[in-house]
Structure formats: C-alpha cells, structure tokens
Design brief:
The chain is an alpha+beta fold and 307 residues long. The protein has helices at 13-23, 31-43, 51-68, 79-88, 94-105, 109-112, 141-147, 189-197, 251-254, 266-281, 286-294, 298-306, and strands at 48-50, 115-116, 119-120, 126-129, 136-139, 166-168, 173-177, 183-188, 220-224, 246-250. It has 2 domains: 13-154; 166-306, no CATH class.
Length: 307
C-alpha cells in the first residue's frame, strides 16, 4: 500500500476499509462489491450473515456494475459473471442469480479481502465462518462501529474501466463522453477524491465535511491545483479539468486571501504527485485517466507536473 498521504494522522478502521476498496486488487476478486455488502449488512443491525444473506447485496452491487460498464475481470470467461449478465438481460429469475452467487461468487473474495499489496491488513473487518453449519461471515466490532456513521462513497460503486474522466466544475461531478459524444455522469467529484485524502483538506490537513456544510470553513470543495485561469493560455497544452489537477480543499484554504490564481510552490507539487500516485496505485478507474493524461511511469508523471 502506498505511503499514507497524511502520515501524522493515526490510521482508523475506516482508513483500513478504504484501503481495501481503493487499493485492493478488484480484478476478478470483486472486493468493491463485498465492501458494499458488508456495510449494508452492518447498517441493518446484523453482526453476522450467511452466504445466502450476503449474496443479495453482493450480487446487487455486481449487477449494477456490469450494467454500467461490463468490464470487471481479465478472465475471458466467468460462469458466475455470465449468470449475472443473464439476470440483467431478464433471462433468469432472482433465485438463480442468488444460488449462483452462493456457489461461485465468494470463492476468492472472502480469502483475498484483507490482503492489500503484499500483506494482510492489521485490522480484520470480518471472520470467515464458511466451514460452520451455517456458512457465512461474522462482522468484527471494528466494522460495526465504523458502519454506524459511514456512507459507502461512490468509489465502491463506480469501479468502471474508464480511460478519460473529465469534471464539470459547477456540478462538481466526473463524467465521460461515449462514442456518440453523449455525456454521462460517473460520480461526484468530491466523494471520489475524498477517500484518497482521508477526509482531510489537501493543503492544511484539517477535517473537511462533504454533507454537513454548517461549518463553512470546513466545507470540502473541489479545487483546481494549477489554477483554471491557465487554461486561457493557448500554449498550455493540457486540460486542467482532469482528475490529476483536482484536489479537495476546505473553504478556508480554497478561498484563502492571496491564493487566488497563484501557482503553487514546489513542495505542494510534490504532494500532488504523491496523491496522484495513490490513485495510480489503486485499481479504481481514475488511475487510467491520470496515466493517460500525465504519463505511464512515475518519473514521467512528476516531470509532467514540474513542466
């Protein structure tokens, strides 16, 4: 897992959960779907779930994903995903979808869920009870406590294979343009960026809030790191509305006196590079947009920012 962006802030259960969703290898393991299912079970007030119970929210998440973008696995064939595709086309009933999920859907993901990078997380979010009389899982206190006030952000729901993601600064949402030049909203920019900043302002590291805006100074706002006014220069040659140039800032920093359209100092450029490397190191589609716009290697990406 990449070095934490805000090193001095102790890691919480939510941080470890985000590490699974943001950095866990989702290709063929469906971690994002299991993460959503775990939160759903916990917020229903349950401390355990059989595989049959878990199959409902788990397969719901995967079916939504396949309907939005049918690209989840590097495997050419998957009988489990084919079953979900048939359900989406209306060819089978819910019972067949759930039975297939119980038989095939959890083969790898339960074992792999806590593995991020080359090792396991130090905090467990559930225990594997598949060998018991009622095969399933038991949620840990760490997950139950976290789930009380947790809203699973769009990163677990928009795990699509997108190459170019643009942002609408006014609506604060990412969108893609399809082959017919039709624009489609992908996810809220604030939610998508928040996980990689651990709920902290990019500049001052203080808490930011996405929903409770009663504290104006701590309101999370999407900020163009290199100021948008640079886009007016004919020789700029880059699109500043791409995710590589967007950070979340508190209202105080985003509207700070003297910040205006000034270019940031070099230490903040290094911080932006680190944030972007967090995204590249994840298996979320925003990584593809950064690579496509800034370079295929870390050295090329840092040179791009300094240039």
């Amino acid at each position: 897992m990449p070095t934490p962006l805000f090193k001095s802030i102790p890691l919480t259960s939510e941080d470890y959960f985000r590490a699974v969703v943001l950095y866990g290898r989702n290709v063929a393991s469906y971690k994002f779907a299991l993460a959503e299912a775990l939160i759903s079970i916990a917020q229903d007030g349950k401390s355990s779930a059989t595989l049959a119970e878990l199959a409902i929210p788990f397969s719901d998440a995967l079916c939504r994903h396949l309907a939005a973008q049918d690209k989840q696995t590097t495997s050419r064939t998957s009988s489990f995903l084919d079953t979900l595709r048939r359900f989406n086309r209306g060819e089978i009933e819910l019972d067949e979808r759930l039975n297939s999920t119980v038989r095939l859907g959890f083969v790898n993901v339960i074992d792999a869920f806590h593995v991020v990078g080359s090792g396991e997380l130090p905090v467990r979010l559930f225990h594997d009870d598949r060998q018991s009389a009622q095969p399933g899982i038991r949620l840990t206190d760490a997950l139950l406590e976290m789930a009380e006030g947790f809203t699973l952000d769009d990163l677990s729901k928009e795990n699509e294979g997108l190459m170019t993601v643009a942002v609408d600064p006014k609506l604060e949402e990412f969108f893609i343009t399809d082959s017919k030049d039709r624009r489609r909203s992908v996810t809220g920019a604030r939610n998508a960026l928040n996980g990689y900043q651990r709920g902290r302002c990019f500049y001052c590291s203080n808490d930011i809030y996405l929903e409770d805006w009663s504290l104006l100074a701590q309101r999370g706002e999407v900020d163009h790191f290199f100021p948008h006014v640079l886009q007016r220069r004919k020789d700029i040659g880059v699109n500043l509305d791409q995710v590589w140039n967007l950070v979340l800032a508190c209202n105080r920093c985003n509207g700070a006196a003297g910040k205006g359209d000034s270019c940031p100092n070099r230490s903040l450029v290094e911080r932006l590079h680190l944030r972007n490397e967090h995204l590249v190191g994840s298996h979320h589609p925003l990584r593809e947009s950064i690579i496509a716009n800034t370079g295929s290697t870390a050295s090329a990406r840092i040179k791009f920012l300094h240039d």
